[in-house]
Amino acid sequence: MTGPGSTLRPAQTPLINYIPPSGSGKTHEIHRCSMRHPNPSSQNQPRQLQSVPVLQSVSIMTTTNSAPNYALGSTDAEHERLIRQAALLAPFTERFFRSAGIGPGQRVLDLGSGVGDVAMLAAKLVGPSGEVVGVERDPRSIARAGARVADAGLPNVTFTQSDVSQISSSKPFDAVVGRFILMFLSDPLAVLRSLTPLVRPGGVVAFHELSWAPFLLLAARLPLWFAATSLIHETFRRSGANTEMGFALYQIFQQAGLSPPTMSLEMPLGNDPEFVRWVPDVLASLLPQARQFNLPLEPLGDLNTLRERLQAEVAASNSVVTWMAMVGAWSRKPATHT
Ligand SMILES: C[S@@+](CC[C@H](N)C(=O)[O-])C[C@H]1O[C@@H](n2cnc3c(N)ncnc32)[C@H](O)[C@@H]1O
Questions:
Q1: Is residue 198 situated within a structural domain?
Q2: Residue 186 CA, ligand 1 centroid: distance in Å
Q3: Residue 130: which residues within 8 A CB-CB, separation 6 or more?
Q4: Residue 180 Cα, ligand 1 centroid: separation in angstroms?
Q5: CA separation for the pair 228, 307 (Å, rounded)
Q6: Lowest CB count within 10 Å: 71, 91, 138, 227, which one?
Q7: Helix (H, G, I), strand (E, B) or coil at 21
Q8: 97 lies in some domain
């Protein structure tokens, strides 16, 4: 493995700003919110949504720039889930990167590479004359990513094992990119500030992050789907992840000295079993954390049959469900930026 060296960066407090609804949490409730029900039959009825017990705000100081728990873990099953997810999202991320100007011959830095899908997608865009350096903290993920690029015959993709807050490079990058990484950092602004000096003047900064708010609103019309997705959301939230990182990008880019980013929001829709599968898949990876937080699993029934029951609920709706809202933000580094 090769890649940039290290300099330690400080960490701060994660943003926790959304109190989710939950289907039927039975334990004590410390928050209620009122929202319009998206079901057309009750469109004008403000609905009191029950909440599972939640912290209204969390303040965590760490000595690295990471939320205290990376909730998804690094099991083989989670790696396979990331690969399936990447296949679904590839057209969205590719279109986003192309619109941001990622192209042939460029040198690209990919943050939080996981098992390598975004780095390999970037490699397709930069071609053999370009280069991609992926940064990933988890040794198991990086081993899998390395094996996959070797299998794919991509010698111009390398990975380095590092926290994203500890990157330095003597050679500038044409672009720094990442997908679903800033949401897991306790101080994404500090990381962005530490990385912009590594990008050449006029180079690109482009991130794909999430917004859960529209997803949860649209999920609310299917009870089991909503119970499962609310539990996923709450587990992420309690682990310190920022589930509204997508919209935060607008300010963070500017605070890091970049111009206001060009932004987009896309929500894949579907109803076939492979599409619906992402919810039980994510839940399976999150279960140890959900149990650690004592979140109620009873509303989901038998977890062994959850996947089939979710598929049946979606099929019976004769409609489609959404994936999470992906927010893309990209900007160019000003020529005068230091
Ligand atoms: C949700 S996965 C996304 C992987 C990949 N970007 C993709 O879209 O397929 C987030 C990855 O970021 C890594 N990660 C989280 N915090 C990190 C940190 N502070 N430094 C480096 N990697 C980190 C995790 O280990 C995980 O592999």
A1: yes
A2: 13
A3: 104, 105, 106, 107, 108, 123, 156
A4: 7
A5: 10
A6: 91
A7: coil
A8: yes
d(CA 271, CA 142): 32
Could you identify the residue written with the tokens 């290290």? 6
Alpha carbons 178 and 205: distance in angstroms, whole number: 9
Q: Is 33 among the domain residues?
A: no
Between CA 287 and CA 257 the distance in angstroms is 39
Q: Which of 184, 281, 179 is nearest to 239 (CA)?
A: 184
Residue nearest to ligand 1 atom 23, measured at CA? 112
Q: Which two tokens stand for residue 212?
A: 């859960």
For the CA of 112, the closest atom of ligand 1 is: 12
Q: Is residue 200 a part of any domain in this protein?
A: yes
List average pLDDT for each run of 10 residues in the chain, which is 338 residues long: 30 27 27 29 30 25 52 95 97 98 98 98 98 97 97 97 93 98 97 96 98 97 98 97 98 96 97 96 96 96 97 97 98 81
177 forms bridges with which residues in the sheet? 110, 206
Separation of CA 27 and ligand 1 centre (Å): 32
Show the beta-strand stretches assigned E in 113-261.
131-136, 157-161, 173-179, 199-211
In this structure, what CATH number is given to the domain that contains residue 186? 3.40.50.150
